[in-house]
Design a protein that fits this description.
This protein has a single domain, classed as MetI-like fold (Orthogonal Bundle), CATH 1.10.3720. By secondary structure, the protein is an all-alpha fold. Helix 3 packs parallel to helix 6. The two termini are 25 Å apart. It is built from 10 helices and no strands. The C terminus is likely disordered. It is globular, with a radius of gyration of 22 Å.
Length: 254
């Protein structure tokens, strides 16, 4: 048991030690904190930020924006997936638009949305727009996954429309929905923070990234970037755990 625990610990720590060592070596070779501060300077800057109330205010608002946008995107993706899976006219109308949304660069949406909504709402809208096409595609694929034999059996048993939806289509679509949610979380986070960087709301992690870059405060820029990465990983882990709990603890992690 102790040997297995040690192997797991090494497996988890070895990549972090390797990349931190590489970062430390590169910073020592360059020897210019303005261009590449070392891990010690970055984490000391982050420690100072953690002790301020403003830091947690920025983090909270960014989390609220990204999570709100992701939830709206999931709702929109599920609705669009159901409509396009069962209604051919809706498929013909919505599918091309959702493919366009998925293909257009995030920066273009951010600039357009700045013309239409306030800067505080742009990250929410952008996160939702990035999540919706991913969830839509997975949900539509899940609803189309039940084979003809299964549908014939449901028809033979005289299942009504709602019972068929509950016992055939929903169990088939749920694993696809889970995959879509987990796949789109990273997109929601990156696009939401990118929108904050470009539209600079008053309270936002992305705004602090922008100001750190603007004033050449490279250690702060790295510290805020570490914060973004850590929050993204924590959010994904929390959602993954919530989904596993919802499914009764079954299934392996994706």
């Amino acid at each position: 048991m102790r040997g297995k625990l040690l192997k797991t610990l090494i497996r988890l720590l070895a990549p972090a030690v390797f990349w931190l060592g590489l970062w430390l070596l590169a910073a020592a070779l360059i020897d210019q904190p303005l261009f590449l501060p070392g891990p010690g300077l970055v984490f000391s800057t982050l420690w100072e930020l953690l002790g301020t109330g403003r830091f947690w205010e920025h983090v909270l608002w960014t989390l609220l924006r990204v999570v709100s946008g992701a939830l709206l995107g999931v709702l929109g993706g599920v609705s669009a997936g159901a409509l396009t899976a069962f209604l051919p006219p809706a498929d013909a109308l919505l599918s091309p638009a959702l493919r366009v949304v998925r293909a257009v660069p995030v920066a273009s949406f951010i600039v357009l949305l700045l013309l239409w909504v306030g800067s505080d709402w742009v990250p929410v809208a952008v996160s939702a727009m990035m999540v919706t096409p991913v969830v839509w595609e997975d949900v539509r694929a899940g609803l189309a996954s039940p084979g003809r034999d299964l549908l014939e059996m449901a028809r033979a048993y005289g299942m009504g429309r709602f019972r068929k939806l509950r016992t055939v289509y929903l169990p088939a679509a749920l694993p696809y929905l889970r995959t879509g949610i987990l796949s789109s979380l990273g997109l929601a986070w990156k696009s939401g923070v990118a929108a904050e960087v470009l539209c600079t709301p008053r309270r936002a992690v992305g705004t602090q990234v922008y100001y750190a870059k603007l004033y050449l405060e490279t250690p702060s820029l790295f510290a805020w970037t570490v914060t973004v990465v850590a929050l993204s990983l924590l959010l994904e882990k929390a959602v993954r755990r919530a989904l596993r709990k919802k499914e009764g603890g079954g299934g392996d992690e994706a």
